[in-house]
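New to this. Explain these tokens.
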Amino acid sequence: MNLKIRLRAENEYIKAENEIIKKEIALRENNYAAQLKAKKQRLSKNSKKKATD
């Protein structure tokens, strides 16, 4: 009986850890996407400047 309770608690802990990891990954993906978007915008601005020079 005691083992069952301990395993259930470990299972809940691991599930909670997994949710945190998923959120961290999603944040990293969003940050990376934002960085790429900003980089593309900078490159686009630079190419427009060169085209007008």
